[in-house]
């Protein structure tokens, strides 16, 4: 037997029903420390971004007729990785112990004397109905709920589901994994005494932006499935509580419900846009096309930062530039007063806010979030002759700002604070998901996101619209042959979200 001191540990983690916000804090905590992640088909792959860079990611998805790994192989994989001393996270859709075969995996780990921990998850059996406006219990309609699976062990000679007992028990009944057998199951329920007019709802991809609900009765639900071309994965709800769905539906009322939107920002920056879109009901595919790296000439950048106190103005053009500037500044100095009397200009509210987070005042912030507006604002400040100005910006930025300020008589230096490079990591399989599932809209927040997305050479999904954060980004998109359907009037993330909502409301 392997030395116990070298044994790793396996975490059987409920990945929740699909909505990223329903993943537990404990689940995220163990993902962030994982050395190996083994995940299923029903897991939201966006949570893989929480894992460390060096993590080993293994897909073990099982769909009808297409099993990447057999269950015995998954069990053995978990044991082998833990015996090798790894911290293994086994991500399972919903809750690992509710029809997720987590019990079998726990038995395999226990038999191999592998330490393990079970992290319960929010089950789709409750969450999917809730997102369809269906409470599984209700004081006036159902005082108990029964869960059963429509997908039993194929080696069984006969079903172990007691349909007569289900009919007698009444209340709410929730079935997982059985939409493809709904006709036979509905017939069995009626044959054993269930009312043909019992309300039934099927919730597909519940809690996600792809959620779809089909409603009917026990007698006609199979026909409704055919009419709607309804396919798994879905949760079925039987009982009087289904009738509350139309009255209590809330997910479908969110402005971006049912929309799939691609976010191309850097992985670190994607959060604000992604969360804003998800909160409005959208399904978000984070497909970062760029990554922020230190500038090519770090020494030259450091010299300019060291002399920041010698300038009359420091101009920041992006939050990234602010972060990189002060990261270098505090490597060189331990006192904010070393920045001297330099006044600060910022393009855009996000940039200005980042400056304020360093407890510094923004002296100049033009109403429009483009370089041209900065030049116009400086002209209003008065005589620019011989004013020393330091512009902190990305290597790839336009040269308009330094040229125009120099033309006004200023002495301008440019500090390249960072550079953007193409993102090569695709751990969440976002590219294949976009190619296979398509999207309603793609968002671009800079010219570099446009250029680098197109450089990937991915097929353009039919009907996918382009949303741009502002005119410079829009022009880059048009120059590359794209049609811009949405342009933010206010060139920041809230403005972009507002423009996207307005577009879908209109269309």
Estimate the global geometry from the Cα principal axes: elongated
Name given to the CATH architecture of the largest domain: 3-Layer(aba) Sandwich
Strand order of the largest sheet: 3-2-6-1-7
CATH topology of the largest domain: Rossmann fold
Number of helices: 18
How is the main sheet built?
5 strands, parallel
Mean pLDDT over all positions: 91
Low-confidence stretches: none
Share of residues in helices: 25-40%
CATH first level of the largest domain: Alpha Beta
The percent range for strand residues is: 15-25%
Kindly provide the radius of gyration, computed on alpha-carbon positions and rounded to a whole number of angstroms: 28 Å
Structural class: alpha/beta
Number of strands: 22
Distance between the termini: 64 Å
Q: Total domains, how many?
A: 4
Describe the 3D structure.
The protein is of the alpha/beta class. The chain folds into four domains: 8-122, Cobalt-precorrin-4 Transmethylase, domain 1, CATH 3.40.1010; 126-252, Methyltransferase, Cobalt-precorrin-4 Transmethylase, Domain 2 (2-Layer Sandwich), CATH 3.30.950; 260-289 and 423-506, Rossmann fold (3-Layer(aba) Sandwich); 294-421, Rossmann fold. The chain is 33% helix and 21% strand. It has 18 helices and 22 strands. The protein has a five-stranded parallel sheet, with helices on both faces. A five-stranded mixed sheet has the order 8-9-12-10-11, with helices on both faces. The chain has a five-stranded parallel sheet with strand order 14-13-20-21-22, with helices on both faces. Helix 5 crosses helix 6. The longest helix is centred in the middle third of the chain and has 14 residues, at 319-332. The model has no long low-confidence stretch (mean pLDDT 91).
